[in-house]
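Quick illustration for those who missed Monday's session on complexes.
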Amino acid sequence: MTADPSVTPSTLTLDNVRGWITSFHTLVTEQKAYLTELDSAIGDADHGTNLSRGMDAVATTLDGAAPAGIGELLKGVGMTLVSTVGGASGPLYGTFFLRFAASAGDAGTLDGEAVGTALTAGLAGVVARGKASVGDKTMVDALTPAVTAWGDAIDNGATLTDAATAARDAARLGSDSTMPLVARKGRASYLGERSAGHLDPGSVSTTLLFTALAQALP
Amino acid sequence: MTADPSVTPSTLTLDNVRGWITSFHTLVTEQKAYLTELDSAIGDADHGTNLSRGMDAVATTLDGAAPAGIGELLKGVGMTLVSTVGGASGPLYGTFFLRFAASAGDAGTLDGEAVGTALTAGLAGVVARGKASVGDKTMVDALTPAVTAWGDAIDNGATLTDAATAARDAARLGSDSTMPLVARKGRASYLGERSAGHLDPGSVSTTLLFTALAQALP
Amino acid sequence: MKKLINAADTVVADALLGIDAAHPALRVDHEHRIIYRADTARPNKVGLVSGGGSGHEPLHGGFVGFGMLDAACAGEMFTSPTPDQMFEATTTVDRGAGVLHIIKNYTGDVMNFEMAAEMAEADTGILVESVVTHDDVAVQDSLYTAGRRGVGVTVFVEKIAGAAAEQGRDLRSVAALARRVSDSGRSMGVALTSGTVPAVGKPTFDLPDDQMELGVGIHGEPGRERVPLAGAAQIADRLLEPILADLDFTRSGTIVMLNGLGGSPLIELYVMYAEVKKILDRAGVDVARSLVGNYITSLDMAGCSVTLLAADDELITLWDAPVETPGLRWGR
Amino acid sequence: MKKLINAADTVVADALLGIDAAHPALRVDHEHRIIYRADTARPNKVGLVSGGGSGHEPLHGGFVGFGMLDAACAGEMFTSPTPDQMFEATTTVDRGAGVLHIIKNYTGDVMNFEMAAEMAEADTGILVESVVTHDDVAVQDSLYTAGRRGVGVTVFVEKIAGAAAEQGRDLRSVAALARRVSDSGRSMGVALTSGTVPAVGKPTFDLPDDQMELGVGIHGEPGRERVPLAGAAQIADRLLEPILADLDFTRSGTIVMLNGLGGSPLIELYVMYAEVKKILDRAGVDVARSLVGNYITSLDMAGCSVTLLAADDELITLWDAPVETPGLRWGR
Ligand SMILES: Nc1ncnc2c1ncn2[C@@H]1O[C@H](COP(=O)(O)OP(=O)(O)O)[C@@H](O)[C@H]1O
Ligand SMILES: Nc1ncnc2c1ncn2[C@@H]1O[C@H](COP(=O)(O)OP(=O)(O)O)[C@@H](O)[C@H]1O
Ligand SMILES: [Mg+2]
Ligand SMILES: [Mg+2]
Ligand SMILES: [Mg+2]
Ligand SMILES: [Mg+2]
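Prediction with magnesium ion bound:
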């Protein structure tokens, strides 16, 4: 991370994006066992293993790569996730980054609005792929409010840092809201009523994604 | 059992033989778990199950049967054991009774010497079938001294009752002597040195056989 | 955890080495973790590609060969393979007649195969059709959920669609047939113990010594209910009751599979099959063909599942057609 | 104890019902507990009869059929069948050319088969020859002991002698061939856990979580030594070392069987086979044919065994000959 922490950024730079991915990798590594534990309650006990396998591969790919723009960088992230994670989260996180990348194009920096547009594109990709709505007890329950919170903050003139913090908090609230829900999508849905009373693992990893973004925009 | 206990018998009658088999059945049933436990230490944990399955079948067969002589009765016992026990002990106990029966022929009673001849024939059958010698840690280690003790007692003018007691005691001593031995025949031989320190299960059931004979000749 | 493995994270790669070494009729692409037929199918044969998480052997790799699959993609343990694997397999087996993807209904599998199909059609123009199996009656079916899990009927789909492809039918016809098979099968399983995923190192779920999990999934997903351990006859009853309630199996012949989940010995599977057969006889179900053994497993889970397929003469003829794979072989 | 059974004392009878129901090509005599081919072998074919304690499925009943056994006698769990069973089977399958008894070397099996042969020859004049397999290198061989246990090579003997009988060879020639196969095979097994005999209700032996039993027998007989649990590569090494030290396998082709003991899933058997193959390659052993799966099991014991057969062209040709049984099938 070469971003100068003393300056409040007004755009998301290539370095910020690299920092975002690096922080996400660190957080996923730290929380790997926890994510898997959550998945063992209502899934198949592999969400942490899956995502950390993918982010390890992303780190290896990024190491030494010199992408020209944000789009190129995040396309690499998305493709790596798609080809190494498997399971449900692979195509979903992969699609999120691929759509984000396509929206970012070859820009070297993105302003708050452009980031909002890219996040929205990522969310749309996840929904198109997984066909989940808010309330189905999936990562969409964290992703949707986070993307909305970012947009609202930017519309209200917030800094990128504040927008990221708001998105992170919204993701966490959204994730917490999955606790009482009965799952309607993904593996947890096989449990019916018995899926209630547990956090959705994918919504927790999505919170990590926005925690990482906030860390990269100090 | 219709033998009159107040009379010291000088011959083994058909009723005595029936009593012998009945007592053996009772003893095997009582000691079933113990025999299997002995077999689980150095065999495959089925000697009690095998023998009690066989003696149950013998009891069913004998029930209501009216064999004309000792030979006919014990031939039935031997054939039933052969066709219901399986494993090593089935052919061995089966052969023992079949040879005893052949020696007894259609006699209705046997004197001490004739019993000795029949026991010797039974032992010879076991040895011919299993090719074990004394010291190989098998039922032969109990059977051989028991048969010898019977013969010696009769030669010395003992009553059948005393001969049976002597045979029983000799069987028990022979069985005890298997404890330190390394098995050279049967399943226990696979253990090599590790078979030492355990009683041979078949020698213990053979002691029951002579205990039953002593009980039938009170 | 006691397993015949080198390390938790090399199990899939190591097993693929073993499959490669054991079966000269198969060819393994270790980089992409794809099991292929070693021979080349003839031009214009529709290609059949399946795949899924590992840990269900012989499914799917054991069903690659003449008369069944052309390729199977192996995912991580209990984790769907990735789209690049299915893309690679699809482009490799296409002989000009297009490729059928056979997918068990799990969100991950469906999405990964979907991306692969999009890639294949966009990048290469290869026609791809897919069939998603969804036969597990333990799961409530509804438009608002992920639907039923795909389990045992997948074996029937792979065999019967494989026979049709071998006969030279075109992609649409093979896909339609595969969907018909998929729709005509129902399954239900029971676990006596949980399997252990090597990377996790302990059983996926705890099951008391006196209980069993009725309606368990092949990844150890909890089932319909946890009930007291029962005898084979009662277990057979509780497996068949929801199957027979869900579909009428008295109107045609039925192909039955009594499948072991990996940790139960064959003698127990035969005991179970005897009970299943008694119930089917009483229910007027005519068993035309049967399979007893381990076909779609869940690592070392003790337990079994039953799959019934309502099979008309066409399906039975295709079932009887020659097949030569490690897992199913007859007629050659 | 968690098992798919009705009651401990009905397992064998119930499983025979299941085998009967599952395999129309077999016929089961439930009174004598004998599994026969449903079709009649042609006149003058030498009959092949085997049998042994139950709990080792698919051995022996799963190897009854064209090109292999004519009959298999099922004993109680882990207990030799009785002479009257073998007598019945022998008289039933004799087609005028005599009968070969295939016996695993256990005192009980040998004696029971011996009595059956005496009965058959005395009562009916049927010629009986026998082969006693004794391939388990875990056991020290000597004239003064019961000798080595018969294990995996029995599958090879049944297949190869079965093919020879199907070709019309006479009894002496089939028996000589069977003995040659038996003498050319070596096996060694390892247990990670003990199986549980239903009537006993608890595991036959206790094995700590960090140990394995090297050289275990298929009835749970203790092995050569109890050693710390190791990885697949080291296990393969410790199984093959005594086998390769006992017989030279570099002078002809070799048929290899990597056999599961009942409780280990197929994926682990493939992992083991990969390691076995590496060692054989290094040792200059040319693997002509291979089998990976559950062929001679020990109820639900986790673990595996390796069997190597030194096989010249004649044996390999007979191995490749058509066979149609529940456990092995090819060429038909
Ligand atoms: N249809 C879907 N739409 C959105 N997210 C989903 C969907 N299905 C599953 N997920 C997310 O994926 C997470 C599980 O991921 P993971 O455990 O890696 O995959 P799998 O379920 O294949 O094992 C769930 O917690 C949920 O958040
Ligand atoms: N060759 C033999 N000669 C005499 N007795 C033998 C021989 N082999 C085994 N036995 C006896 O048989 C007993 C075991 O019987 P059992 O457990 O019923 O049969 P199996 O060993 O087949 O399970 C041994 O304890 C031993 O006394
Ligand atoms: Mg998961
Ligand atoms: Mg025994
Ligand atoms: Mg998964
Ligand atoms: Mg025994």
